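User: For my dataset I need records formatted as: sequence, then structure tokens, nothing else. Please produce one.
Assistant:
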Amino acid sequence: MPHLARTHAIAGMITRLHDPNYNRWACQIKRTGGCRQPIHLRGKVEHYDQATGQLLHRYTTNREPDGVLRVPCKTRRASRCPACAEVYRADTYQLIRAGLVGGKGVPETVTAHPCLFITLTAPSFGAVHVRREKNGKVLPCHARRDAQTCPHGHVMSCTNRHSTDDPRLGEPLCPDCYDYDGSVLFNAISPELWRRFTLALRRRFAKLNGLTVIALREHVSIAFAKVAEYQRRGVVHFHAVIRLDGPDGPNSPPPAWATADALAQAVDHAASVVTAEIKPLSRIFRWGTQLDARRITMDGELTEQAVAAYIAKYATKAAECVGTLDRRIQPLEDLNALAVREHARRLIAACMHLGSHPGLADLRLIQWAHMLGFRGHFSTKSRHYSTTLGALRADREEHMRAEEITTGRLPLFDEDTVLVIAHWQYVGRGLSLGEQLLAAALAGVRLSSFGGEPQ
């Protein structure tokens, strides 16, 4: 951090610490969980007796620090707010794990249902620097005895044994040979590829068991939970949990013939045959050849805790690992001035170029250039897989409200006889850098440096 910014941060901390309302400010920050960019609201809530019109209770922000109430931003992205992202990660972990071992409304008998953890990858768009290991030994990146020289004069070989933090990982061996258009178009079409994969999976599983898709629904339902992850080269791949249930979802067991082996066969077939075409460019995309499908067990190498933790971890990340920006990029911005690595800059430029094509307007590549073309949801699930994030949040809010009533911070009312009138106005968001450091300390988050990421 520059010296001037550090000075301002320290000055901001001192100013806030000497504020007469610091204790109340600190209480607000603790209630947000240490949110780095809390929403600032101004307004009031009034409770009236519906029968008599008597005012029973009033809360107003007039006496709050700075005249505002600070509430958490609730973002899922760790690059924006580590505290709120951690809540999202923990909720996602509980959601995924409940679908594997029960709880949160899912019966424990679900542990006996066949379940796979799969990874669907993207195809190759050109050779990139990679880190590979075998038996604990790091292998050369792209060692080729008869390596060819590309038309742009680059030898398509690399004998380096890259470290895990090597900035060259994911970079093309020859940027001019790399298919940047194909990379961003794959990202844009990947949600449709996933949808078609789920349909093809059901069709194949039904065929393997001599049934139609309609008849299959009377015996088996297939539940999904997936998350998207960016590879260093800038394309997404999907990790997913796929579970076989009976016709009533997790509350009913699947028939004996609905096995994990049959499901794995259906997954392998569906991943190999599914395609999606971008018609204006006559380009057809499919999944990469690297498919991983493993059975989830309760005591083996791939346990339900490991799977839930793995999926939850990537639910809070986006394209920042590729070196792009964590904000939208305006069409008139100077791409050469962006603080991104060159590979990410070229991917962004491809989005901007293709986004001007009239036949690709539905892909909204310009709006999602900072995500390198991907505009799908990062974590999704089928309806009957397990509980929902909304239900988990509602339970947490009810628990906090009950605690406030118990401690006397909120009055206990009969909700059927009380009229609640609320008026809120958005007046801003965020904290100064000095306040962020105080918030991290109040929430017990240790920062590696001023403005650094949590550790």
